[in-house]
């Protein structure tokens, strides 16, 4: 009997999970002459005043501020901002090491981003090539290549749609057909029980809860230099929303390194037991004939 290799999906939020702070604060917000506090407050005031989605208002604010300052709104401008982002310790080396660890056990590891941040900024980062897909907020562009309207706004609840897309192997954001077609869980490209979701905040709670409830693993991470953040993440454990909490330190031998490798070990062992059970069942049936 031929068996497909197991695929494990590591699904990451971005801001506060792989990099400290918000991606817009590294380059874009200073470039428009505002402090981070000013930018987010102005965006949130609009959201509250007009009962709007805060993700869409910050995207609208991004376009407005860039136009007022005469800044480019081309895709490359956003990608250039992404090149300024720095990461938590160990992030650049993390992906290759975890891929190799899975490969040693015959497990294919795939990495995904599921973020409310700007996709075009993430595409400019030094780690963009590590991801099979980047699901994040993005812009529509006019005939001159300038951003003029949100194409995708990813908030804390609609983040969960991308978990289902990963589960069924649907790469397109615009697809509404394949993702809704029935497919037995065992035949899906990435089973829920083979997912590991890593996030840092309240916007990640629906995804954490979904993955955990379906048999996968949810890891809440926090800035190692901020113990108040640790207390907030530990609360997610107490509330049953996350499975584990770790500092966002991705160096070899660190807590999250050991944890993810142990989860991969468990997935490998569970799969081995399943294959043994199938083999014994087949042999028993053949022996009875």
TrEMBL record:
This protein's record includes keyword Coiled coil: no
InterPro entries registered for this protein in UniProt: HAD-like_sf (IPR036412), HAD_sf (IPR023214)
Membrane-spanning ranges: none
Keyword Hydrolase: yes
Organism domain of life: Bacteria
GO molecular function: hydrolase activity
Keywords for this protein: Hydrolase
Name of this protein: Haloacid dehalogenase-like hydrolase
Organism (species): Candidatus Tidjanibacter faecipullorum
């Amino acid at each position: 009997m031929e068996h497909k290799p197991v695929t494990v999906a590591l699904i990451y939020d971005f801001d506060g999970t792989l990099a400290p702070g918000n991606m817009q604060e590294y380059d874009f917000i200073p470039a428009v002459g505002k402090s981070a506090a000013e930018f987010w407050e102005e965006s949130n005031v609009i959201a509250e005043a007009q009962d709007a989605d805060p993700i869409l208002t910050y995207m609208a604010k991004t376009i407005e501020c860039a136009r007022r300052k005469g800044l480019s709104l081309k895709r490359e401008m956003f990608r250039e901002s992404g090149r300024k982002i720095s990461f938590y310790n160990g992030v650049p080396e993390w992906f290759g090491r975890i891929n190799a660890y899975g490969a040693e056990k015959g497990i294919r590891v795939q990495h995904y981003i599921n973020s409310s941040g700007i996709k075009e900024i993430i595409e400019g980062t030094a780690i963009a090539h590590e991801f099979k897909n980047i699901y994040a907020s993005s812009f529509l562009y006019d005939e001159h290549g300038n951003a003029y309207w949100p194409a995708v706004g990813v908030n804390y609840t609609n983040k969960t749609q991308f978990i289902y897309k990963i589960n069924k192997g649907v790469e397109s954001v615009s697809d509404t057909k394949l993702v809704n077609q029935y497919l037995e869980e065992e035949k899906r490209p990435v089973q829920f029980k083979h997912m590991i979701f890593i996030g840092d905040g309240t916007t990640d709670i629906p995804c954490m809860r979904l993955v955990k409830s379906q048999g996968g693993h949810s890891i809440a991470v926090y800035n190692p230099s901020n113990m108040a953040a640790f207390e907030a993440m530990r609360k997610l454990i107490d509330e049953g929303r996350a499975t584990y909490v770790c500092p966002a330190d991705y160096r070899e031998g660190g807590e999250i390194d050991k944890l993810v490798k142990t989860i991969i070990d468990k997935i490998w062992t569970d799969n081995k037991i399943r294959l043994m059970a199938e083999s014994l069942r087949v042999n028993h049936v053949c022996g009875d004939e």
